[in-house]
What does this fold into?
Amino acid sequence: TLCDLNDELLPLSQAKVSVLDRGFLFGDGVYEAMPVYGRKLFRFDEHMARLSRSLAKLRIPNPLDRDAWLARVRRLVAAHPADDQVVYLQVTRGVAPRDHVMPPGLIPTVFMMSNAMKPVSAQQRHQGVACITARDFRWERGDIKSISLLGNVLARQLSADADAAETILLRDGAAGGPWLTEGSSCNVWLVHEGALLGPVMDEHVLEGIRVGLLRELCEGLNLPFNLRPLSESDLRTADEILLSSTGKEVLAVTRLDGEAVGHGALRGKPGPVYARLYEAYQQAKRE
Ligand code: PMP
It folds into this structure.
């Protein structure tokens, strides 16, 4: 498959970056992963807005304007055989002699690749997935979509070791916690009394593009939607737990730390709010 390195389309195996690239030396860069359905970009402008915010927070100049990004992403999508894809793009600060201080005037390195979308399996759709919890030991700027993902990698491996699909993170903080932040690579949602609840999108949480989308879908479905601090006990007593991300879309969590999620007849099964949001999501994809 072809990728795009600094505006050059070439086979992935031939794309080469300097060892002095600050992405390699410091993890000094940001990324985006956006879905493509039927060769059409889904929520492109929202992903671009988040990219701009991440770059601004790191004082990396955005190397392209919105239309130039669109042209490049479209060219890459056209070069891939699959109709449904996930486009990965990253921008690093550029190449310079190693120094923690940000060198002025660098040319950012822009890399993009696309992969066929790997849909969630039918079994995971029907049965939901198992997750474990772990303490959120990452840094204080989870709001930046940084390529420095070591904390997320360590967190995810804990659930991989436990044969679970994701690690749900709980962060120490103010009394009444620990507090739900997110998954290692997704946002986390709770259902309590028919309402969809997410944590406040502060500096500990990456605001997924699906946060705004789920808000809109809830409006259309007349489901209450609320972002507020969510405690470990809110998590453990939820009627439903959901995950959201580019790759997972929305996905039901039916086991948490080995315990079935939910109550009554629906215990351990994907719930009604999940089912409605999943259907609404599929419709939004086709529009
Ligand atoms: N949080 C983290 C840490 C993530 O890596 C992701 C996936 N990019 C998300 C949340 C969900 O974001 P999105 O809905 O944009 O995929």
